[in-house]
Structure formats: C-alpha cells, structure tokens
Q: What sequence folds into this?
C-alpha cells in the first residue's frame, strides 16, 4: 500500500531512486482543494537514469529474449495484484482525480483486464513470430518476423490515470519492449502504486521505470532522449503537435491519442428514454473529461423539443459530490485550471449566442471543490467555439438537423475524428451513417462502451495509430523481412 506521506522517489531500474533534485509538486484532492501530498518532480537527469535502465534491460536483460508465455505470466501476476488491491487503487483515483468511486472501480477492473488481455497476446506471439511470404522468384525464400521495437517512452494524461498507463505499459511489455512511463503531474498517485505492483510481481529490473514530473521538464526530456526508440503519447492536440515536431528530429516512431469533439446523431424514431440515458452517460461520466465524450448532440427536428425537455429534467437530478458519497454520479473537475478553462469556455460560447438550457454554475452546497452542474447548451451556431472546440467537462451542446445528409455533414464538420455515435430503430440507416462518419470509433445505439479487444484511435487531428487489441501490440513491434537466396547458380548481374 503506498504511503502518501513518504513518497520515496522515482521507480528506476527496479528500485526507488532518490530524485536528482529536491524540487517537488503538490497533488490536490479536487473535492476539497487540499494538498494530498508532495511528489518529487522528476527532471532530465531522472529521465536519463530511467532511459539508461530501460536501455540496459532491453539490450542486455532477459526481457526481450523471454518467450511471450513467460512475459505473459508476469502480466497476469500484475493483474492479480491489481485485482487484490482494487478498492485501494480506486480510492487513490478518487482522491487524485475526483471521479465517483464506482467509476474508479471500473477503471481498475479494466486496468487489470488490459494486463490479462495482453498476457494472452504475449503468449500468442510465440506461435506468430515468423511467417513465410511467397515470392514470385523461386530462387528466393522470405520470412517475416515481429520483434520488440526497443525502449518505449509513454506519456499519459490525468483523466483515467491508471487505465491510460495500462493501455501503453501492458502491450509494450507483452511485445518485449522496456519502458519509461511519465504520468500526468495532475494525477501521479496510481502510477506509484503501479511501480509497487511491478516490483511485487518480480518484473526484471529496468523493464518498467516510472518518473513523475511536469511535461516541460520530465516529459520533454523523455521525448528528446536519443535512446528512446518509440514514443506513445495520450493527451491534448497542442502537446501532441509539439511532441510530433520534437520526435521528428531523430525520426522516432510515435503514436498519438489526442482530443475529440464527438457527435451523437439521434434520429426521430429513437426511444427518448434510451437516448437521454446514453446522452447523459456520453457526456457526464468522468465529469465529461473523456476524449471520446459525445459533446455534440444532433437531434432530428421533430424529436428535439421532447428530448430536450427530458434531458434537462434528468440532468438536474444528477447527484453531485465527493466520489465516495453514495449515489454520486458527478464529481469535481480535476483541478482549478481545468475548472476555470471550462467556465471560460461556457462564458465565451454564451457571448457568441449560445443559451444555457440547464447548468453552467457551481452547484448549491458545494463551496469548496471544482464542482460544476451538468450543463446543456442550445442555440449553438456551427462556428460557436462550444461546438468546435474540446471543452473536456460536463458540457453538452444540442443542435437539430432535418435529414440524414445534413446530420452527416454537421457530424463530420470538425477537425477532430476520434469517435461518433448514431441512434435509430432503423439499423440499416445506423450502419449507413456509421460508415459515413469520419471517425475511428463509432457507436450504434449507445455511446462510450470500450473494449480492450477493439482498436482505439482517431481520424484527422485526433491522432495517429491505434491502441488496444492487436493494434496496441503492433505499436511496440517492428516488422523484419529475412530474404534468402537459395540457388548455387550465380545471381547473374555480371557473371553469366
Ligand atoms: P496534456 O497534453 O496537457 O498533457 C498530457 C501529458 O503530456 C501529461 O503527462 C503532460 O505532463 C505531458 N506534457 C505536457 N507538455 C509536454 C511537453 N512539452 N513534452 C512532453 N510531455 C508533455 O493533456 P491532458 O490535459 O493531461 O489530457 C487531456 C487531453 O487528453 C484531452 O485533449 C483529451 O481528449 C486527451 N485524451 C485523449 C485520449 C485518447 O485516447 N485519444 C484519452 C485520454 C485523453
């Protein structure tokens, strides 16, 4: 169990290393605005030590040479420990991030599930490592193999702290890579627990290294380190763009999971109660701090008045509070910066003509904590920033459409392309609209359910590459061809 009053440093080369500097940063409980604890602020020296440990473990350690089944056994052990510490880990997420406890429990279950899933894929790698490729030239034979890329650097956000770590750590380790993880400085706690879990599972030293710190100091040092072969980033578009240009210097292999502004198209034949439930889940779970949140609702004109009325009624009933309180569905936003950003976005949107149907205020009885009422906005023009920009809070905009073609046009008119959803009783229409969406993840008659088996990632500015499933594993594998000349005859370039 992590001792919040005695954070020992960074987890490097299988041990807790004293930080290079005495500088620390505070992590805050967003429900109370109080400091939970001080965390050592990693810098380029800590990152260098972590990358060196990962490099050594990759180049000289047992990890990449082990069979997939052996690596899988470590991943399973880690999942087992996570499950045995589920409520303690979920509590850390509630403290650090503010999310309701049942949602934090889902996160930890999914985190353990991700390790179990990649344990299976690691085992399967043993049988799929090499395959023969047919060549048109009979004198040649060719084999294609998969190999771990090397040292992977992972940089993650604060909205699902442990789960976002798992989406990168589990496939990287399954593939045989070693890793340096830089968690978000806003939610550093469960990453420390992850280090304890790796330690308890007996992971060989240097395989997983974890350095907390800011993006500017620790994050940038990781991106720029020349011994990092692969960079996996999840976060905002501006940071992703910076990372892409830094990684360009030495042509690092990168994958980017970035922001979203996902549409949810609801046709008039939909059941209103189901539509309201999925709209609310799609934008209010995790306080709307979800990359795939369906924050742009498009409703067919004839359904709009009744749907809006029911949505407003239900949004007003949502219980708001500290994540451990019984029945709470909406916790505080993650910190004051995020809270102020969301309030400012609402204010700017209203100045541009949007109107509040409900919410937009600090809820009564919550003087402390970064609480915001579930917010529904109407009369939002196509170029209102509430419609075009990611807000990352419990804020949803509703617009109408008159026909399928218009719905698709409005849904796709965005620089984002992470996710999209459609609802109708007419499944053929749903399938048609799903195909027309320019987005990497599409939900029919629901919004948000995510499965580790299926690929996750965006079109357009929402990112590059895919996580989860076999695609997540491929992020950490190189493809090699070995082509052999099998003839005793000369090749014939100059000897005839
Ligand atoms: P952010 O970009 O501010 O920070 C993400 C991470 O990058 C943090 O660890 C931060 O310390 C680090 N960082 C910041 N500047 C850096 C730099 N110059 N060099 C290296 N690292 C740096 O994002 P955030 O506010 O933590 O997260 C919210 C964003 O993440 C939203 O846009 C959301 O949509 C996105 N997100 C996307 C997905 C997805 O799967 N596509 C999932 C979750 C969150």
A:
């Amino acid at each position: 169990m992590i001792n919040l009053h005695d954070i020992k440093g960074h987890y490097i080369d299988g041990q807790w290393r004293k930080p290079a500097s005495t500088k620390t940063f505070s992590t805050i409980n967003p429900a109370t605005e109080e400091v939970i604890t001080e965390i050592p602020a990693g810098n380029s020296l800590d990152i260098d030590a972590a990358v060196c440990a990962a490099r050594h473990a990759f180049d000289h350690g047992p990890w990449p040479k082990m069979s997939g089944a052996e690596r899988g056994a470590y991943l399973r052990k880690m999942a087992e420990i996570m499950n045995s510490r589920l409520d303690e880990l979920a509590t850390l997420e509630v403290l650090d991030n503010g999310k309701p406890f049942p949602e934090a429990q889902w996160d930890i279950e999914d985190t353990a599930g991700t390790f179990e899933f990649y344990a299976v894929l690691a085992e399967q790698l043993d049988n799929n490592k090499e395959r023969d490729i047919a060549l048109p030239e009979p004198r040649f034979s060719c084999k294609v193999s998969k190999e771990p890329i090397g040292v992977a650097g992972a940089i993650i956000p604060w909205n699902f702290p442990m789960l976002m770590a798992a989406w990168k750590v589990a496939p990287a380790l399954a593939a045989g890579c070693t890793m340096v993880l830089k968690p978000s400085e806003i939610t550093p706690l469960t990453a420390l627990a992850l280090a304890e879990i790796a330690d308890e599972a007996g992971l060989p030293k240097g395989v997983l290294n974890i350095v907390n710190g800011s993006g500017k100091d620790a994050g940038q040092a990781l991106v720029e380190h020349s011994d990092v072969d692969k960079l996996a980033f999840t976060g905002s578009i501006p940071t992703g763009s910076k990372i892409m240009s830094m990684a360009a210097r030495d042509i690092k292999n990168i994958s980017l999971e970035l922001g979203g502004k996902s549409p949810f198209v609801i046709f008039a034949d939909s059941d209103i109660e189901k539509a309201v439930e999925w709209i609310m889940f799609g934008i209010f779970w995790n306080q709307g701090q979800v990359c795939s949140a369906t924050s742009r609702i498009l409703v067919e004109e004839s359904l709009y008045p009744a749907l809006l009325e029911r949505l407003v009624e239900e949004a007003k009933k949502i219980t708001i509070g500290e994540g451990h309180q019984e029945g709470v569905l909406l916790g505080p936003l993650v910190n004051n910066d995020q809270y102020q950003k969301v309030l400012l976005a609402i204010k700017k949107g209203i100045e541009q003509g949007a109107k509040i149907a409900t919410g937009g205020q600090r809820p009564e009885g919550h003087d402390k904590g970064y609480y915001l009422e579930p917010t529904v906005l109407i009369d939002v023009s196509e170029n209102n920033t509430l419609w075009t920009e990611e807000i990352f809070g419990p804020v949803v905009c509703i617009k109408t459409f008159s026909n399928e073609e218009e719905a698709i046009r409005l849904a796709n008119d965005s620089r984002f392309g992470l996710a999209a959803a459609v609802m109708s009783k007419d499944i053929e229409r749903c399938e048609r609209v799903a195909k027309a969406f320019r987005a990497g993840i599409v939900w029919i008659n629901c919004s948000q359910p995510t499965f580790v088996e299926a690929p996750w990632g965006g079109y357009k500015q929402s990112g590059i590459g895919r996580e989860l499933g076999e695609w997540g594993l491929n992020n950490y594998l190189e493809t090699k061809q070995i082509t052999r000349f099998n003839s005793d005859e000369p090749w014939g370039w100059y000897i005839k």
User: Anything to note?
Assistant: The mean pLDDT is 97. The chain has two domains: 10-258+462-481, 263-444.
